């Protein structure tokens, strides 16, 4: 993979994949980036082309047919389904954890038991498949308390219940009415942790890890962290709550022990590893959850700030030398505001025309290089009209010299974009701005 003229494939169709494809395409070593299946934003990005592949056999076929040198997996579902194992069996180069390693995200129960075995700091928990036992446990523990679907639920399988009524309703939704299907056939119930959340994502090579820029996601639908949990309504990078001291503790107490333990158990972890953290008031980090891929929408601000060649970093991980690699970052803050469809997160409306996007040079860039628009849930009609096609539609991502400056720039552009029932939070970055010296 040392040569120029590389052909890369990104698996997925969302905002995270658009940001990854955009960044990979900037590498002088890359000739073409295929995105499978991609979206209208990736189709309009320089060097990028969409492919109609959306399952493991078709991704393998595309990689062979187009002589793909490197495949990068965006979403969690293909990883949990074993795409890495399948590619490796065909002799194809792919970046991501194996199916066994991806259990860190695919099963909350697996992850919690793993952390308990190896002394990795996380909240006390219990797992249930019987609703009566789950209800009894919640009554005994009291609220606030956290109810999680065991399986993959697209970032929406977590209920932070402030009251017992909310906790019981979440249990019934998952275990009785089975609204989350198999993902909610078991629930993990864990203690509520006080503190501030942060996203800590690393590139891992099975033994060592390189930390990417820190970020903070905003999961709740509404301003002030109110309303239902979503896949994420916005994010910014860096996250000031991750001080140099906290950063060192996370690497020492969480990331390195996790990689060592995965290797010890015979499932070395290679790929992006995302630790969703709760930073306690005293600075102690706890793992809220592990994800086996980049976050969404955290990828958008992180990629906007990354100055290093992403291909070089991935290559270093695949060759087992990420411990010697370094990454260079734009000193500015990046902030992403998600524009969501009417009815999101429960029943997003599709097919609404999107107006106010720039026509030139592409739908990706607007005004200057400090504002980027990443597509997620969009589609293009035969007549060229861009329409909503998913819950989270676009992520307007801006760079600025402070959180406040990036926020102002992102919202100025986000306000111009219109579609019926558009939802967006107006306080992305509020925690950093509210604290002196952080804005």
TrEMBL record:
It is an enzyme of class 6 (ligase). Pfam families: GARS_A, GARS_C, GARS_N. InterPro entries: ATP-grasp, ATP_grasp_subdomain_1, PreATP-grasp_dom_sf, PRibGlycinamid_synth_ATP-grasp, PRibGlycinamide_synth, PRibGlycinamide_synth_C-dom, PRibGlycinamide_synth_C_sf, PRibGlycinamide_synth_N. Its EC number is 6.3.4.13. It comes from the Bacteria. PANTHER family: PHOSPHORIBOSYLAMINE--GLYCINE LIGASE, PHOSPHORIBOSYLAMINE--GLYCINE LIGASE, CHLOROPLASTIC. GO terms for biological process: 'de novo' IMP biosynthetic process; purine nucleobase biosynthetic process. It comes from Hydrogenophilus thermoluteolus (Pseudomonas hydrogenothermophila). The gene is purD. Its cofactor is Mg(2+); Mn(2+). This is Phosphoribosylamine--glycine ligase. GO terms for molecular function: ATP binding; metal ion binding; phosphoribosylamine-glycine ligase activity. Belongs to the GARS family. It catalyses: 5-phospho-beta-D-ribosylamine + glycine + ATP = N(1)-(5-phospho-beta-D-ribosyl)glycinamide + ADP + phosphate + H(+). Signal peptide: none annotated.
